[in-house]
Amino acid sequence: MIRTRRPSRPSRCNRERSWPGAVACLLMFLTIVCTSATMMVQNVGPLTMPDPDMHVFASWALATGQSRNPIEPRVDRNGNTLRKQPITGPVAVLGRGSHMRNALLSDILYDEEQQIVIPQDKALTKQRRALTAAMAQDVVTVRSARANQYFPIAYAPQATGIRLALSKNLSLWDALTWGRIANLTTFVAICCIAIMFAGRWRWAFLIAAANPMSVFCASSLMADSTLIALGLLIGSLTVYAAQRGGAGRPVPAPILVVAGLVTIVLASVKIVYVPLIIPLLLLPNRTVIWWRKLMLTVSVLAAVSALAFWWSQYQYVAPSPRTDLAWNQQWMLAHPWEVVITIGINLLMYTWRVPFDEMFPYLAPIVLAYILTGRGQRHDADININASNATAARGPVATAWRWLTTHTMTISLILVYGLSMGATFGALMLTWTKGSTFTHGIASIGGFQGRYLWPLLGMLPLPWLDAGMHKKIDDIRKPAQSESSAVTTADAAPTALAMPTTPVETAAPVETAEDETSSQLATTDQHTTQQPVSSTIPAARLAEKPAEQPSRKSAAKPAKSANQSTPRKKKNRKRRR
């Protein structure tokens, strides 16, 4: 039985060589993020962002302990029951005089008319004046807030900064600025951990994390920065686990625990990001033991289900105007296949529309960075040939199974994007699509924003990881195959080249030690001269020692009778006498 040698861990020198690259990547990331975030904080007001009535209100509610305020159900003109949560706070932050600006990220980051990157906010002066005025502390209660739309844990960094500023009696402008800095600090810390675990993919993760859209979300009060950072973190943990699996080492239990906690936090904010845990569950059993996969799956699903059930009693669902939630839900449950077709076509339509969309300049560099990083991880041609030859004789079922088992990461990438984006479009179909369009062809689902894709960018290396894993595994198996083939060739060699197996005639027993020694030398010389050694004998055959033939030393020794004794024994007998 031939045992395959377990691949050794990387040497200390190789591990030390990787540290300079990681440190350089982190320094580059910190330089880019701090520089761009400083410009954004100076040029953009704290109340300018997409959906400020949701992010600002939720941050203020959590900072002041109002996240558990009682819910006031209301019925709108379409018959939808909405769970409104009243929030009390300063007029300059929550009132109509706060000069909030609801704008798209593309409009905030680039001014097409003046052709300026990160232009000065149009409402910056008004917001500063309102937040620093003497009347800014006037209290108002807002009953139409959206503070309970997302789970409060998404606003923990912003609320921490605001709470610290309020405890020091700072102005409202400084309080919101502290919230922005705390959000940025949390984003940078999580992204640094993700870059450290990404290995050779660290530079691609740097571009995804230092993207202007990611940095703006982190430098504002938006909760999307936390989702983006956690999405990159679970992607880097998947990369780390796959690389360890390719090296023949199992994944440590703390990595799985952290991945499960990150998935629970992501799903508590947006349940559409639950599929991010799928790649870890599809890793081979040699990388992640099956019972650990089972425990991870059960614990994540149980925690997410419990949080979703509890939060559904307080969550605010924001429908678009002229949308009947009850009618849409009834129609979607009665026509499941039509819903699947509608979601699939809208996904394709969005894919075709991306090159002409305003999000393409921000998304293209990230995808290009992943492609350039993974260009060296490919299957060798001989590996593909061996795989096809091994499966050709087994039939199409075995061939399909071989393809599935060697492309698990690619399949998991398709599942992650398909399920996450499908669930996102399904939620938008329920809440943002007019029901009358369902019965007149394929409905166009609106309300999708490009930043919903950013938490999924950490999964883009999966296809190249798949190739790298199986390439390493095949490289490990090659030495074992070569050894087995060498042994087989040696066994099939002609018998003329084999070593003699006939026993050598031994000399007769003698009485004295001198005669015995001379007979042994004579027998050894005779055995040496009668045994020809061919230069054509394989090295593998010469290295072997068959069990049935005696060695030279044992063959040269004469057989001893029961009464024969060695010279030492004779001397001992004489001494005893």
TrEMBL record:
Polar residues composition bias: residue spans: 518-537
A matching Pfam family: DUF2142
Transmembrane regions: 21-41, 181-201, 213-235, 255-282, 294-312, 332-352, 411-432, 452-469
Annotated spans, Disordered: 476-577
Biased segments, Low complexity type: 486-503, 552-562
Keywords: Membrane, Transmembrane, Transmembrane helix
Compositional bias segments (type: Basic and acidic residues): 542-551
Comp. bias (Basic residues): 567-577
Name of the protein described by the UniProt record: Uncharacterized protein
Species name: Bifidobacterium goeldii
